[in-house]
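Look at one record.

>
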Amino acid sequence: MQGKGPSILVISVIVIALGLLSYFLYQPIMKNINLGLDLRGGLRVVLEAQEKEGQKVTPDTIQKAVGILRDRVDKLGVKETALYPQGDDRVVVEIAGEDDPEAAVDILKNTAQLEFWDENGKVLLTGKNLKDAQARVTQNNQGAEVLLEFDKEGKRLFAEATTANVGKPIAIVLDGKVISAPTVEEPIRDGSARITGGFTAKEAQDLAVLLRSGALPVSFKVIEKRSVGPTLGADSLNKSIKAIIIGFIAILIFMLGYYRLPGLVADISLLLYALLVGGAMSLLGAVLTLPGIAGFALSIGMAVDANVIIYERIKEELRYGKTLRAAIEAGFKRAFWTIFDSNLTTLISAIVLMYLGTGPVKGFAVTLSIGIIASMLVALTFTRYLLKLGANICQNNKLYGV
């Protein structure tokens, strides 16, 4: 068992360490957290599907297009983007925080219909048989190229096409535009091909992303493009953050005044909890939206609630005449399943919102999920450890609210 002196030293080191971490990590964490469209502003674009022969626009077509566009967004790394259908033939794209959002929109709206033509314009192979596409810088550093790999059927078709066109060019066509037309020197039977054309590394990477994501079922035209200011506004954002800070401080004061020594432990734990949530959001590149701020506030309440449940259980055990250490052990055991069940059900709801929701709803779910996991980890491990150290320092039950 740790003595009174060592326990005081350990708690003092923990408090100082958390204080220093809070001071030095605040600015880096805030700098690396991405703000959503409602907090930062950005670009809003409405794409309208264009009906052509063989390309009928239906609600199912739009849903499929939205799925392909979301896949492109993920692979491009454009994180602060909301995509959702509007009506029966439109898709809305909202991009926040991009250095060049219009370039991102141009990439998203490209149909990416890949075809291989012979010298007479006959289609030999299409992108539907494409298995993978990867960008690579050429060995002589003269540019970049895209390496293609076909599926089993595509491998057979490409072998037949190159066998029949030895000594002739095969044009590689993207959305009706010839981007490369190499001459076939010998049959290619390994199911691979290269697209060259003086690409930069970024151009090759963007093209590879488009091809990997697949072709859009219909072509789109931009019918609306406008800049969007932050709907919350800088002043309102500052007020929201100020309100959270004031509320957080009020909780710290209440916990300390009502629960005394355990309240001090709760305050230290809540500080660690805030650092964990902020650090996780920064490392994961999570997007903070106005609903996300609400999710953070809700998770703070759940973290406090977990501490309240634990402390009330400990106080009950102390009233039964148990020693302080025994009461802490029993209190945690009694509180565990209550905390676990309530947090698990909320976490399941948040995960459902995360996968089915879009835009601000998803931001709320991500922030809430991170907060729930952090609060459980802190309450059931760190808080327990600090309370045991507190028990070594003093056996006076009055310091534990009894």
In short: The chain has a mean pLDDT of 80. Residues 355 and 362 are 7 Å apart (CA to CA).
